[in-house]
Each structure stands twice: as C-alpha cells, then as structure tokens.
Design brief:
- The structure is a single chain.
- The chain has 411 residues and is an alpha/beta fold.
- It is globular and about 65 Å long.
- It is 32% helix and 12% strand.
- The longest helix has 32 residues.
C-alpha cells in the first residue's frame, strides 16, 4: 500500500511539474508573440461608438472628411448619418478620392455622391489641400474618419492637419472618430528634417510614429504645429479595447496599392523605392511586397508591371523587372524587423548604373540627408538605424503627453 501511495504521489508530482513547465513555456512563447496577437473582433473603432458622438451632431451643419474606410461595420458613416437625419453639407475627399480608387497623387475634381446627393469637395484638386474659408463658414463641425497606417509618408494625416487648420482659422470644432494604428506597436526612423517637408512628409515625426490619428491631432495642437500656432477645438472619440500592442487587421484596404496586411507591414521598408530607379511592384498584384528593375540582373524572381486600376502608368510598364519577392516572409519577422534598409542596400549594390539609383524624392521619403550618403559609403542597415536611434528616444518622450491608449498588451 505504501509503495502504491508513493508511486501515485510521484506520478502526481511529475504531472504537476510537466503542467507547470508547459504553462511557463507557453506563457513565455505567448509573451514573445503578443506583438502579433489578433484582436480585431474585440476592438471597437470610434465610428462604432454612436452614442458618444451623435448628440454632438444634432442640429449642426456637418462636414465629413472621410473615404471608403469610414465604415461602421459594413455601412459607411455617411450613409448611417444621412439615414439618422444629420444635416451633412459636404463630404471632403482626401488622396485616392471618397471611394478610394484613384491613383496616388491623382488630381480629383469635385462631384456629388450618387447615393445621398451630398456634394463632394475634393481636397486633391489644388495645392491648398483644404476648403476655403467660405466653405468652412457654411459648417458648424467637421468629422474626420479615415483609417490610417501610421507612417509619415502616408498622406491622410496631412489632410487631417490641413482640415484642423481650416477649423482653427474659422472657429469650428473638429470631431475625430479614432481608429487603431496597424503599425502602432513600434516607432522607427529618423525625425523629418523640415527642409524636406513635402506632400509625403509634413511634420517633425519619425517615419513610423506609432500613434493613432487622434493622438497625432492632440500632438499637433500641443506642439503648436499649426500655422501661427493656431489651436483647433478637438473632440476625439477613442477606439475601445485597443492598446499600442494590439495587432489590428484592417477590414478593407486603406488605398489601392496596400491590398493586404503584408503590404501594410512592408510599406515602412519598401516605400523608399519610390525615391529610386527600382520598382516596388506598382502595376502588379503585389505592390510594396516585391521590388525589382530591368537593370538588376542575377535574380531568380521577375515581374512585369502593367497598367491597372490604382496604377495606370507604373514604372517600367510592360518591362521585365528582376528582383525580390517578399511575400514568403512571415508577418512576425516583418514586424519585428521594423524599418528594413537591407532591401534598398542590396538593390543599390546589385543594380547597373548606381549613379542614377537615387532620386531627389528619396530624401522626401526618408526625411534626412545622411541615409543616402551612408548607403553609398557601404554602411549596414544596423549602422544606419543606430544613427537615428536618438531621434526615436527623444520622440517617445515628446509624444507621451498626447497618448490616449495604454502601452501594454490588450486585456
């Protein structure tokens, strides 16, 4: 009996030990992968929290800066508010248009929404990028609801900035229906040197800033970045169940050439090819996920850019490009790498005609003048990133007062 009892106790101890070992191992593995934890079904974006903002719109003349991403479930915000009897005077359309199908930078004219009959005012029909004061005087409040991807060269935050200025100049309120940042779990890249300020870089922030647009709007006000240090009266409706470590999968592509989450994650590293003589895959089914050039010989992978919706005249149209296919890289590896300059460095070293590899637009994208020089000097990706680490450290401190969401893992 004693022997059997001892054996049972030993078996129980072994079982308990193995259970605890597995529990600890799983916990550690989960912690390492929390950055890629999917929480899409639990997150509620600002537009879904109707009870928080609908009372603010009653009896008001409303303008809406939005595009195809401004959804409440499967219904567009404009359609929802129109049915709710809200007096919508204007829809303001950003880059790619209200329906999100125009090419990057394509000039878009004013029009009328066929579904509701509401006037659409294009912010991409002239250089101002904002409504004139006459239009603003017809409104009481402007709603902003666009899904961003959290990168400095993604232009929706610039449209938000310019609308904030229009509201500030005309004493109008701006209501931001916040949405998660799919690249919000890290900060990387140099802070923009403002001598390179352009339509793809407008504020002194890193390439990957890790903020939602609601947070960035707070920072614009707090840092006095609007012209003449104007202040915009803001109301931000926060997303629920979102933290900076939430991996948020976008329900619809945010623009024609970011068709899936892999392209959204790679965008921070492959967009630099826009400032070089290498194609990043516009005019293919995998933009920002492949790259190459007719002058990059010795690569097994090739592709041919074609004219298509969202890329009517892509670089190297109808020509064979040789290069890399990044689609086999896991999302986890892409995310953990942050900005990866190895793609640019390899292409520079492999291409015929290095003297024409970089274009002036490269500095507009990277935001500083030393990266091009360091690549030409043969510096590694790690050496270059170490050079801009001080920018990241200072920005993390600077942005802290404006954050609306916890840094920790989603609970």
């Amino acid at each position: 009996m004693k022997f059997k009892l001892i054996m049972k106790l030993i078996d129980s101890f072994i079982f308990l030990f193995l259970f605890l070992f597995c529990f600890i191992a799983c916990s550690k593995a989960q912690s390492a992968d929390e950055i890629l934890k999917l929480n899409t079904t639990e997150v509620k974006v600002g537009a879904e929290l109707v009870d928080e903002y609908l009372p603010l719109l009653q009896g008001k003349r409303v303008g809406i800066l939005t595009n195809h991403t401004g959804l409440i479930g499967e219904e567009h915000l404009v359609d929802f508010l129109y049915k709710a009897g809200i007096n919508i005077i204007y829809i303001f359309a950003p880059e790619h248009g209200f329906r999100g199908d125009a090419d990057a930078g394509e000039r878009i004219n004013d029009s009328v929404d066929s579904k509701t009959g509401i006037a659409i005012y294009s912010l991409y029909k002239n250089k101002a990028g904002r409504p004139d004061n006459k239009i603003m005087q017809e409104l009481d409040i402007v709603i902003f609801d666009i899904q961003d991807v959290g990168l400095r060269y993604y232009t929706y935050y610039i449209s938000m900035y310019k609308m904030m200025d229009a509201c500030a100049e005309n004493n109008k309120t701006m209501l931001i229906l916040d949405r998660p940042n799919p690249n919000g779990f890290y900060v990387d890249g140099p802070i923009l040197d403002m001598k390179y300020k352009s339509g793809v870089g407008y504020l002194p922030i890193p390439i990957v800033h890790g903020m939602t647009l609601g947070e960035l709007a707070n920072m614009i006000n707090g840092e006095k970045w609007l012209p003449e240090q104007r202040n915009c009266e803001l109301k931000v409706i926060k997303s629920k169940n979102y933290t900076r470590q939430t991996r948020y999968s976008l329900p619809v592509p945010p623009s024609p050439n970011l068709p899936n989450m892999k392209s959204v994650y790679l965008y921070a590293s492959t967009c630099f090819f826009e400032g070089t003589s290498v194609s990043l895959g516009r005019g293919t089914e995998a933009p920002f996920q492949i790259y190459g050039s007719p002058d990059m010989k010795g690569f097994d992978f090739s592709f041919i850019p074609r004219s298509m919706s969202g890329a009517k005249n892509p670089p190297f149209k109808d020509q064979i490009c040789y290069g890399r296919d990044l689609r086999d890289i896991s999302d986890k590896d892409i995310c953990l790498a942050g900005i990866n300059l190895d793609y640019i460095i390899e292409s520079y070293n492999a291409i015929e005609g290095k003297e024409s590899f970089f274009k002036p637009f490269f500095e507009n994208l990277i935001g500083v003048d030393y990266v091009r020089k360091m690549i030409i000097e043969g510096k590694s990706s790690g050496e270059i990133k170490e050079f801009w680490q001080k920018d990241i450290d200072s920005f993390l401190i600077q942005r802290k007062p404006y954050l609306l969401y916890e840094e920790g893992i989603h609970q």
